[in-house]
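The instructor's notes for this session suggest beginning with a concrete chain rather than abstract definitions. Hand out the sequence below and ask the class to guess, before any prediction is shown, which regions might be ordered.
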Amino acid sequence: MPDYSPSMIVLVAVTGLVAGFINTLAAGGSNLTIPALMIMGLPADIANATNRVGVMMQSVGGLKGFHALGRLPRDDLPAILLPTIIGSVIGSALVVVLSAELLKPLLLITMISLTIIMLVRPHDLNHAHGTEALRVTESRTAPWLLFFAGVYGGFVQAGVGFVLIAALAGALRYDLVSATAIRLACTLVFTAVALVIFIIDDLVMWIPGLILGVSSMLGASIGVRVAINVSPKVLRWFLLIMTVCASVAALLS
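After discussion, reveal the predicted structure:
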């Protein structure tokens, strides 16, 4: 049974607030929330599934904020969402049939690979606001990266935002704020798909999930305002720092 003591509720709520902020500006917040849920007493697979409630709610909050401020590009959104949805169905199904021991090496390989890419090719994320983005049909790599992001997000979730940024800013040339807004749309859709599968398999605990979700939405709303107002250089550095932190977390977990 989860520990619903005041200290544990505060821990999950504060962690959700911080994670919502981090996930809106970059990614990697699940590296905080999943351990917090496990400290509360949830097994790893239950924590992984319950965490999706918070991720979905923060995605709704962040997406609403970007849309209200006119920073959500929608022209090619259906083509972007389709491969992530297909991937998320596969990834969520893999959670049920594959060992949870695969989570750590998959997370570790992905985070270290993305850190190296960001260090050696920082110009791939250096697109100014107003740069004309490529459509999915104009890129050979973007559909596969989006599909992998869906599989990865359905299976692990932690750090999936970095994979989506690589596809959206790297392969499709969106500026970081636009890429962040679209990333939240992708995350919302494939998290909803994953959550349905987890609910069917009775892996979600709603009280911790809703505590996490409400606080994450608040953190996301703060993150939107910061993302809109900070310089692209600051946003890139924050993204790199969070990628490094996620890599370290994967190594130490």
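Then share the key points. The two ends are 23 Å apart (CA to CA). The chain has one domain: 6-252.
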